[in-house]
Amino acid sequence: MLASGSLYVFALYAPSFTGRLGYSQTQTSTIAVIGDIGLYGVGPLSGLMADRLGARPTSFIAGVLLLMGYGLLSAGYATGLENVAKGEAPTHFLWMGGFLFMAGMGSSASYMAAFTSLAKNFRNARGAALGIPVSFFGLSAAILTFIAQAFFMMNVSDFVNNISSNNKPTTPKNPQEGAEELDTVGFLLFLGVAGGVINGLSVFGMNILAPPTITTDPESNTTIAPVQAQGQGPLSEQTPLLRENTTTDTLASRQGDYTLGTQAATTTVPSVSDPPLKPRDGRRYVRSISGKEFFMDGDAQAFFVIMVCLAGTGLMIINSISAMVDAVAGAEQGSGPRIPLLGAEFRGDGSGEDGKTPMASIRATHVVLISLSSYAGRIMSGLGSDLAIVTHGAHRVYAVPIAAICMGLAQVAGLFANLHWLYLTSALTGLAYGGFFGVAGTVVAELWGEETCGQNWGWLSWGSAIGGMLFNLLFGLIMDAERPVADEGPQACYGRHCYRWALIASLGACVLSCVLSIRMALRQRALDQYYR
């Protein structure tokens, strides 16, 4: 899981794309969108591969894709820097997006290998069994950010001496010795090597255990009496009342018909004298479904829309938080000489708007905050849903409206926050994003069957890809539209108005997802009472 969340540190090196390579915000957002499509869009293929091939081959393929994707992205960025230094055009942003797409596919395969092995190995207390490991998927961004701050920061003056480009807007004049920025080339290469090595090592330890065998031996099971064959004489005290040709509900047929982990399989096994169950409605007593039957399910369609809204909003903030920080910081700067650097204006001493904290550290803090709060959200939703089920008979889907409300509050905070209160937007975004994904995969396994959970989760992941594409592109287009234009061309946009309409649109999406999730929760509550 730690190797699967590397795309969430995009905000760390996104300013290098806009500041050093000269990409517009829309082009940078497009690169993020293509990477998200690789992470979520190929989910059905990754899920099918994990279900059919197994966890080990899927993990090995993931390692190869991560190594190639980030390796090519690092090489493309280095080539772009050299081209800019020569006065030529940088590497085309679509090529960079293609390289990130390959890394996204590797992340998707790595996640699916771990997810399917957990879902199929742990059939009890799935909230904890899936929530805790999946939480490391969100924590990976914080760990990678700490690594970047500790080992991949370089002095700006050294960078300018190595790649000099007079009269280029991406290179500051008279850089200060104390100013630092991310070594993007080295950091991207590290992401590829680390992802490849971690997934390569996991091949030796990842395995899916066979489910426990349920015996139907009459001597070891007193639920159903042995059945006498036809033509074996008159009835006696040892003769069952129902003969084999009239018995329609045996222990084996009932246990094979219902999904493992449901209420029917974990309590008592119904005997042949029990009345028939009420008609199934695709929930607690559901068999594993996929394909057309899954697509036609009303709750599956609603859950897909929720994925579009919540995942898209979360990805927009995660990928664009650096642009939001630069816009707010630029509007709040006081007087003094400023140096354009990495898409944001710095004071003459290379520090941020408060004169003390470098902008690179502020951006990194937001990335870490989103990651840590996402980790906490996944832990709380996983363990909390388990506790709510045991103590109150609740359902895991009840956590989804809470995540939607939290995400909506993050958008409201972003509309009015200054640079210091913008941390609240990052914290709430990570908490809501992690809280949703902490239960989403388990909901899919419990509502539509664990045997096909990889495929179904893969198809639902298209919602994340579509949502990420819509909201990231919307953010980039709005930011570019708000940029003032001078004689020398478009200038940087500063102030909350630069992204206001993007947050208003995402707030509307959060309201829609909240309504749909509450409807799902009420419907599930009615179904639980129906079967109780």
From TrEMBL:
Residues 3-157 form the Nodulin-like domain. Keywords: Membrane, Transmembrane, Transmembrane helix. Signal peptide: none annotated. One of its GO terms (cellular component) is fungal-type vacuole membrane. The chain crosses the membrane at residues 28-48, 60-81, 93-115, 127-152, 187-210, 302-325, 360-377, 397-417, 423-445, 457-479, 499-522. Residues 260-271 have a biased composition (Polar residues). Pfam families: Nodulin-like (PF06813). It comes from the Eukaryota. Residues 260-283 are annotated as: Disordered. It is a multi-pass membrane protein. It is found in: Membrane. Its main location: membrane. InterPro entries: MFS_trans_sf (IPR036259), Nodulin-like (IPR010658). This is Nodulin-like domain-containing protein. It comes from Mortierella hygrophila.
